[in-house]
Specification:
Layout lengths: L3 H17 L16 E7 L2 E7 L6 E10 L2 E13 L2 E8 L5 E8 L3 E5 L8 E6 L5 E9 L2 E11 L6
Antiparallel strand pairs: 1-2, 1-10, 2-3, 3-4, 4-5, 5-6, 6-7, 7-8, 8-9, 9-10
């Protein structure tokens, strides 16, 4: 066991190294790690929130909530996981059983997940706008026509609401 000044110096170096180290165990989630954080936005009278935990243990956990008139009108649990088949987005709207969407495109701060056999949506797209806004779009074919929905959120600063 080290004692005295040498021990304190080593403890200080180890503490600094741990404080500066990035989160470990994120798996190969670098293409989506930029999504992590707390995001909020509005669309008309709808308040929307999106939360993505930082990659850790090979997964990112997400939560979405829509509130209108002071009442929650929808929510979704999400998970992005590094699997042996690649990065997969699992969507559980309203707490339903998860539906997988595989990562098919990743370019800069834009990612596309797809599941061609799902009813709707077949594609989930996230991108970071030049203004720092997080955007999400779902799209797919419904009754032979392209249908879509889109959301936009700004990063919520810690302690702000």
């Amino acid at each position: 066991m080290l004692g005295g000044t040498a021990g304190l110096a080593l403890l200080g170096v180890m503490t600094f190294a741990l404080a500066e180290a990035p989160p470990s165990g994120g798996g190969d989630l670098a293409p989506v790690a930029w999504m992590s954080g707390s995001w909020a936005g509005t669309h008309g009278d709808m308040q929307m929130e999106e939360l993505w935990m930082a990659p850790r243990g090979g997964a990112m956990l997400g939560l979405h909530r829509d509130v209108r008139g002071g009442k929650m009108v929808s929510f979704e649990y999400s998970r992005i996981e590094a699997t042996p088949q690649g990065i997969v987005y699992f969507a559980s709207p309203g707490g339903s059983a998860p539906t997988p969407f595989g990562l098919t495109e990743s370019k800069g701060k834009r990612v596309v997940f797809e599941n061609a056999i799902h009813d709707f949506p077949q594609r989930i797209i996230y991108w970071l706008g030049s203004d720092g806004a997080l955007h999400a779009r779902i799209e797919g074919i419904v009754e032979g026509k392209l249908a879509s929905e889109e959301w936009t959120w700004m990063r919520v600063r810690p302690g702000a609401r």
